[in-house]
Amino acid sequence: MNIQQNHVIKSVANALQYISYYHSPDFIQAMASAYEKETHQTAKNAIAQILINSKMAAIGQRPMCQDTGIVNVFVEVGMDIVWVADLSLEDMINEGVRQAYTKAENPLRASIVKDPLFSRVNTKDNTPAVIHTRVVKGNRLNFIVAAKGCGSENKAKFTILQPDSNVVDWIIKTIPTMGAGWCPPGIIGIGVGGTAEKAMLMAKESLMDPIDIQDIAQKINPSNLEKLRLKLMEKINNLGIGAQGLGGLTTVLDVKIKDYPTHAASQAVAMIPNCAATRHLHFSMDGSGVATLPEVDMSIYPELEMDYSKYKKVDLDTLTRQQMTQWNIGDTLLLTGTLITGRDAAHNRLKQMLGNGEGLPEGVDFKNKFIYYVGPVDAVGDEVIGPAGPTTATRMDKFTDMMLEETDILGMIGKAERGTATTQSIKKHQASYLIAVGGAAYLISKSIKKAKKIAFVEMGMEAIYEFEVKDMPVTVAVDTQGANIHVQNLG
After folding, report:
1. CA 165, CA 388: separation in Å to the nearest integer?
2. Which residues 6+ apart lie within 8 Å of 426 measured at CB?
3. Residue 1 pLDDT more than 80?
4. Are residues 327 and 473 in the same domain?
5. In percent, how much of the chain has pLDDT > 90?
6. What is the pLDDT of residue 474?
């Protein structure tokens, strides 16, 4: 069977574009089920935003999340394949990544940096991918292409337990330490056995399987591994972490487990979460041309509209610290006015400038403003900005004292929890921390009415923007008195 180079490149590129804006049907159905049974209103609102965002992204064919991920590829190569190619398979895959992420009609955010220990320079096209290859019998090329956001990837956990240690105990103890930055509800992948790297690979691979826990629950004679999945699903959801760490009934939609023979003295255990922007696609190539991707049935989406009737409207341009004292954790707000953005690299530059007496960059004034932790996707067509969901705020904890003390910001907007010291600093300065829904990036972008880069333009998505927003939905996570919504749900 002849496999042509251009067909591989095009198939990979098409798959990556496809998963940037289409959730798989099993995920939509599982999320719809979670929405229907959720009784915690704040969590229910978060799930609704994720579902509405997913449908909007599918219709608009724009990314469901601004973090369009690091590309993971699992490929099985048939031993009987005849190649019509000048490039290696790895180079073909990376060319497909390059074409997908630089497509003019739907550019995807380039997040990959080379020289990770030192310069960390962006490669500009999201290459290279992380590629796992197996040679198997047959004459087909089987792909799993995934885009893994780092909000979830950064929460991966690993340990080597004693052979007689209880894996369930370790998992249930460890899940809360992952915080909410992995954007639950999602899927937990677990690998047990083999060696350290084998366990991690199995955990990642398990996330590529369909959500089928409800089918497992109906089986008369589930296997021991299936019983363990059901047990863990129940125990994790009973922790009460819930959507975005806001509490509620559903933290995980499924628990996946793969195992492998291991040394008698060892029990390697890996755990990797997949977020609310679960993105992966399976396809095969048989030499007949570019892979055919699945048709999308839009009828699987529930009919939902955001109910903003209980949200408080806030004018950011006249907001005072005194007004913020009336906010309580769990309050839902609609923000209108000016926001200034900034992520990791911008905060590092600001720290250097303030530290050496330069002051803030020309045109940047944080006084009485909120800073939004975001690295948006570039706009296309008549868009003001591309998908612009929050990044994990915990990474900015080390800069929070500086920002509150030296820039006079009112507060911050991001996703996930803040540390104890940061929460105390927020209280000290009578500031606030608000969360937007991770996994609702396209929906949030529609509340941004104007956007312009005002500093560090050369840093791409890490640049500082000024946004003008109208009715941007957020939830109070840390109030001016230091109450923290995530503490009560994550412990």
Report:
1. 43
2. 400, 404, 411, 418, 432, 433, 478, 480, 482
3. no
4. yes
5. 96
6. 97
Note if the bond before 185 is cis, omega within 30 degrees: yes
What is the C-alpha separation between 338 and 308, in angstroms, rounded? 20
Q: At what angle do helices 5-21 and 89-101 cross, to 10 degrees?
A: 40
- C-beta of residue 66 within 8 angstroms of C-beta of residue 107: no
CB atoms within 10 A of CB 363: 11
| Residue 4 pLDDT > 70 | yes
In the prediction, which pLDDT does 491 show? Answer: 66
Rounded distance, CA 25 to CA 276, Å?
A: 13
- Give, in degrees to the nearest 5, the angle at Cα 77 between 72 and 81: 145
What's residue 488's pLDDT? 78
Q: Are 76 and 109 in the same domain? A: yes
Looking at residue 481, its amino acid is Q
Alpha-carbon span 45 to 156, nearest angstrom: 27
386-406 b/e (C-beta count within 10 Å ≥ 16 → b): bbbbbbbbbbbbebbbebbee
Number of domains in the chain: 3
Per DSSP (E only), the strands in 213-304 are: 252-260, 267-274, 280-285
- Residue with token string 């990376």: 94
Residue 283 bridge partners (DSSP) = 143
Q: Which of 147, 169, 194 is the last residue of a domain?
A: 147
Where do we find the tokens 């031993």?
Answer: 79
The domain of 331 spans 312-490
- Find out whether 122 and 140 touch, Cβ atoms under 8 Å: no
SS3 442: helix
Q: How many distinct helices (H) and strands (E) make up the chain?
A: 15, 19
Asked if the structure places residue 295 within a domain, the reply is no
Whether 376 contacts 386, CB under 8 Å = yes
Q: Is 95 left (phi over 0), alpha (psi -120 to 50) or beta?
A: alpha
- Mean pLDDT of all residues in 22-48: 96
| Rounded alpha-carbon distances, angstroms, from residue 400 to 111, 193, 292, 345 | 24, 41, 48, 14
Q: Are residues 357 and 463 in the same domain?
A: yes
Domain identity same for 328 and 470: yes
Classify residue 33: in a domain, yes or no. no
Q: From 194, 199, 214, 301, select the one nearest 255 (Cα to Cα).
A: 214
Start-to-end Cα distance in the chain: 56
- Residues 412-450 pLDDT 10s: 999 999 999 999 999 999 999 999 999 999 999 999 999
Q: Tell me whether the omega of the peptide bond preceding residue 128 falls within 30 degrees of 0, making it cis.
A: yes
